[in-house]
Amino acid sequence: MLFIYLLMGVVGVLAMIFAVQNPDPVAVRFLQWRIADLPLSLVILFSAIVGVICAAVSGFAQQVRLRLKIRQLERRIAQLSDAPDKSSSAAPGPDTTRG
Questions:
Q1: CB within 8 A of 87, min separation 6: which ones?
Q2: Separation of alpha carbons 15 and 9, rounded Å
Q3: What is the DSSP string of 31-47?
């Protein structure tokens, strides 16, 4: 886990250096919208934040699916452990007549 935090810190520092070295104004167009003269560093920062949010939402959705699956499997385990074991009552016992 420490490695992940360290990696995130390094990537963050590199992104900040990149943003500081690119202060030129740019025009951003998306569908019908047009925003002129935004600093490139702000566009980069906004894009990074949107990427982090998308990744977090995706991870959260996967975590919810896995928790639901775990709950379903735990219920199934409880059902199987509460049911009488039919195979052991039908199986013959060990042969004790041999000597």
A1: none
A2: 10
A3: TTEEEEEEEHHHHHHHH
Residue pointed to by tokens 């709950």: 71
Q: Return the structure tokens found at 27.
A: 């025009």
Grouping H, G, I as helix, E, B as strand and the rest as coil, residue 28 is: strand
- Cβ–Cβ under 8 Å, residues 27 and 34: yes
Per-residue pLDDT of the chain (99 residues; tens, 9 = 90+): 788 889 988 988 888 888 788 888 888 888 888 888 888 888 888 888 898 899 999 999 999 999 999 999 999 999 998 877 655 555 566 666 765
* Helix residue ranges, H only, 33-91: 40-82, 86-90
Answering whether pTM is above 0.70, one says no
Q: Can you read off the two tokens belonging to residue 50?
A: 């949107």
